[in-house]
Structure to design on (87 residues):
């Protein structure tokens, strides 16, 4: 999964729903965290979705106001999130 920071509104929904994998950086935009909890501060950085938070991440991707959370399958196709026309 990844976040497109260019479209993030900074509302914090993802951080509320899945705080173990989403966090704000100092720029007020959401970034993903890896399995050690380290924030991945490069724009569009990808991390795997940890199993315990799959439902929360999918929910965040569905509800994200910026439609900028992308949950991708292993083959690169979109599982959830992103702009509606791409789902
Ligand atoms: S829910 Fe979407 S728009 Fe809101 S902070 Fe998270 S990534 Fe950004």
């Amino acid at each position: 999964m990844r976040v497109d920071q260019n479209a993030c509104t900074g509302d914090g929904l993802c951080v509320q729903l899945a705080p173990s994998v989403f966090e704000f950086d100092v720029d007020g935009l959401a970034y993903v965290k890896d399995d050690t909890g380290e924030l991945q501060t490069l724009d569009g950085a990808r991390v795997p979705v940890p199993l315990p938070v799959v439902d929360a991440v999918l929910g965040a991707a569905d509800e994200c106001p910026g439609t900028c959370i992308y949950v991708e399958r292993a083959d690169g196709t979109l599982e959830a999130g992103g702009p509606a026309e791409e789902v």
